[in-house]
Specification:
Helix content: over 70%
Strand content: under 5%
Structural class: mainly alpha
CATH architecture of the largest domain: Orthogonal Bundle
Largest sheet: none
Length: 150
């Protein structure tokens, strides 16, 4: 069963169980997937990897919205975003920890022989496929920058 089919099946289950949060979140995710499918010159069906990218993007939106609501003192809205994030994260692969990211960056820097800030693009190019879907690009880039500078 593809990831998109799994999302649809889980949506049906959530609707039957009258789980408002889960069904609303899955509807939003499926809408984002559909929008991605029809974007561009011709409609296409997304692969599981592409659906994972959409899920990752939606999770990032929830994290950013939660932070914004927390900063504004809107705890009830922040709690809703956190709950939606929990539903979305159930479909994402396990995220890498900071230590795991640091180890991967260190190994990639050694493998590429990179040194200095000008080599950041080289390191990121080699590292991106290894962390795809398992870590946010900004976090990885910050670690690469830190290790190349130090």
């Amino acid at each position: 069963m593809s990831l998109k089919e799994q999302l649809r099946a889980d949506l049906t289950t959530a609707i039957k169980a009258r789980d408002e949060l889960r069904s609303a979140t899955l509807r939003m995710v499926l809408t984002a997937v559909t929008n991605e499918e029809v974007a561009g010159k011709s409609a296409r069906v997304l692969s599981d990897d592409e659906v994972l990218k959409v899920l990752t993007r939606e999770a990032k939106k929830r994290r950013e919205a939660q932070a914004a609501y927390d900063d504004a003192g809107r705890t009830e809205l922040a709690a809703r975003e956190h709950a939606e994030l929990g539903v979305i994260e159930g479909y994402l692969p396990a995220q890498l920890t900071g230590a795991e990211i640091a180890d991967l960056v260190r190994a990639t820097i050694t493998a590429t022989g990179a040194s200095g800030a000008q080599a950041m693009g080289l390191v990121m190019k080699a590292l991106t496929p290894q962390v795809a879907g398992r870590a946010e690009g900004g976090v990885v880039a910050a670690e690469v920058r830190r290790q190349l500078a130090g």
